[in-house]
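Technical note accompanying the year-one report. For the benefit of new consortium partners, we illustrate the data format agreed upon in the data management plan: each record pairs a sequence with a structure-token string. No post-processing was applied to the example shown here.
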Amino acid sequence: IITGMRYFECYYDSNGAYLAAKTTIIVKNFKEDCNPYFLTGLLNSKTVFFYIRESFNALGIDGGINFSRDIVKSIPIPASYKQADIQNPLARISSWLLALNGNNEEVSAFLERIIDAMVYELYFPKEIQTANCQVFKHLGNLTELKDDWSNKKKLTAIEKMYKELSKSAHPVSIAMAKMQEVPEVK
């Protein structure tokens, strides 16, 4: 987990990269049944950042977050995260962001908004359902990136899914727009 001035960024690394900056590392998932890509998406969400900022007043030098293992362990995660229809879509989109590796800012920004929408729905399911702006129910058929695929094949698959999901008439795009009017999201 790399912390920044007014944000933090979390990455899943299965290759054992060397980090030269101050970093908090989660060597083992803090939830055994939690997909590491799901965890990465959750930790990068606006909702979790808001929780940490408000709960811990965890501001350090220059307004940066003084991030620690104890803060990560304290994040309340609703029990519904264990459901495959919750964990899998968030994990897949997180893996897409990692595969993009900064290659397409427009696609990355859209995928980050989808992750935020899923996390809002995870934490505020009744409010999101009442507003009829659920996203999980529309994300059951997301492409899973395979380890043996070339980077080009992965990027092509991500671009194809992005083009579909970002259409203004797609239920995910409609739900994300409606979600902005939910008081808990505002």
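Partners are asked to follow this layout when depositing records. The first strand starts at residue 2 and ends at 3.
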